[in-house]
Amino acid sequence: MEAEAYGAAEGGVMAGGILILEIALIVLAVIGMWKLFAKAGHPGWAAIVPIYNTCVLCDIGGKPMWWVLLMFIPIVNIVVSILVVIGVAKNFGRGVGTILGLIFLPYIFMMILGFGSAEYNKIEG
User: What angle do CA 49, 36, 86 make, to 5 degrees?
Assistant: First the structure.
């Protein structure tokens, strides 16, 4: 009986650790987006508003607002997200390394763009 209770306690500790990690990643994402949006001339608080933050990201990436609707279509949303990220990196004057970073490690690379020396210059398309 004690072994079962011990196993349940381990599961609770593990779940708590995962929850803390998830919250930390969300906080990093919000901080990075907030700074990125502010640097691009948009309100930082837009980072915490669902769907609107995607609209702002499309604008920063130089893509039309209606692309947000494409984000709701499975598989298409992956392609559209990558194209938006490419636009964001180009508008900050960055290259392939930053594009790959924004795709695979967005929490870190949004902070790099937001807090780094990269300057925002909007390029349409």
Answer: 100
Closest CA to 58 of 35, 80, 28, 74: 80
The pLDDT tens digits of the residues spanning 1-59 come to 455 555 666 777 888 889 999 999 889 889 999 999 999 999 999 999 999 999 999 99
How far, in Å, are 37, 56, 69, 76, 78 from residue 73 at the CA level?
25, 19, 8, 6, 9
Q: What angle do CA 69, 25, 94 make, to 5 degrees?
A: 65
Structure tokens at 111: 């902070």
Which tokens belong to 78?
Answer: 């992956």
Q: Which two tokens stand for residue 61?
A: 């990436």
Alpha helices in 1-125 (DSSP H): 2-39, 52-60, 67-70, 76-91, 96-104, 106-115
Length of the chain in residues, anyone? 125
